[in-house]
Every structure is written in C-alpha cells, then in structure tokens.
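Subject: Two-component system response regulator

B.,
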Amino acid sequence: MFAADAKTLNRIEPVVRRVLIADPNMASARLLLDIMKSLGAREVVTESDESRVLDHAREMEPGLIFTERNGARLDGERLARNIRRSNLACRRAPIIMMTADATATSIKGARDAGIHEFLRKPFTSADLFRRVENVALKPRDWIEAVGYVGPDRRRFNSGEYAGPQKRKADKPTTAAGAALAVKDQALRILAASLAQFDNDPMQALRAVRQQAETLKALAIKTSDARLAVAAAGLEGCLSVGAPTKATLAGPVGAILALAEPGTELARAG
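Prediction pasted inline below.
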C-alpha cells in the first residue's frame, strides 16, 4: 500500500482540500474519491454529466479537477477548454485527465485543451500521487492567449513520454535567456490577440491584459525603461472604457516595436 509522508501531505493540502471528479464510471470515481480522501481531501464531489460538473465547479471552487476523457455525457477536452475560457474562480485549477485510451492523439488533445497532467487507467496510488504532487508543488507558467489558454504546454508531462525535449528552448540556461523567452512569448501572444480580436473579443482582451501585466513585471525585473513605459501605456488603454481592436492597435504596436533584433516579430515589423 502506497503511503505519502506527512510533510508532503501538508504541502499539497491547499490544492487537494476541495476536489471535483468528472467520471461516468461510478466504481472508478469512488476509488479516486477514496484515494483523495487518504491524501487529505476534505470535500470531494463526483459527477458524470458535463454541464453539472461546471455547476459544481462554480459552487465549490475546487483546487483540483479530475476528468475522464470520454463519457456518455462528458467530453473531457471540451470540459477543460470551457473551464479555462470561463470566468470561474477555478479556471486555473490543475486538471488531470484520466483514460484507458492513452494514445499519442489523446495525449496531444489533452495538452492542447489545457490539461495539466495525463493519467493512464488503470493506475496505482503511486501513479496518482506523482501527478498530484506535480500539479501541487511544481506549478507551470500560465499561458493566456486566444488560441490556447492553460498551463505552459512546453512543460506538459503526460507520464507516458520518455523521449528528449521537443524544443531546444524548453529550458533557457541563463536568467537573461529566460527573460528574453518570456518577452518573446508575450509579444507573440499580443500580436496574435490583436490579429484574432474579432473572432473572440473577450478572450483577446483577457490575453492582452495578461501580457501587459507580464511585460510590466518583466520590465521592472530587468530595469527595462522602454518596456516599462510601453507596458504602462497598454495598461492605461485597457483601463479606459471598453477597449477595441482599433484603440489597442497603437499601444500594442508600441510594445511590438520593442521586439528583440533578429526575431521573427522584429523582422515582421
């Protein structure tokens, strides 16, 4: 029988305090409920209907969500996307997807839907605990874009993949490199958000706000006065009335003009 040490249980407690389980299989849901209770969960709700899962998410504000990939009244990928793009307080809560169908397609689908971890059924208590420990103690950067909302996909850990990193830039080796990576990603998201504004104005605005906050913090951290001024200009625009694509074009353009020389954004500008 797997047993976690008390110190680790104390550290994961804030995340597992309230758990929501979306699983049409009652036996599977009950097993997961029992395991989570043993890990310190105080409130665990199980549900098989996707629409009611969202109602529970709104009411209980879970710190951790489990979802089966498919069910008669459940689509785990759609559920994850709806949570990520909602105004729910738990929209950033870790989501762990469970399925016996752990194919390359299902793993990619889970990653692109905003899932934090992937768990193949049947699983052991130790398998489950490793996933919970990852989401509770190893937080990933949050990506707020238009095409994707969720944890950084470059850090996705399905537990099923043991090959090399997919991108050389997955882990910048210096602080300066990490800062450049953050800036480049934020600028790319800003450019895409403006280009896709008419398709999803609400999410585009949310993405722009997140990048303004990210770039402002980066400017302070790196003492980049030009970036600080440009980010402040964008925040000012966002704080006045209802920003539109037209009103955002100027301040977003001012930030994009600060793209690092040699990058794709700089060449496009």
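The radius of gyration is 20 Å.

T.
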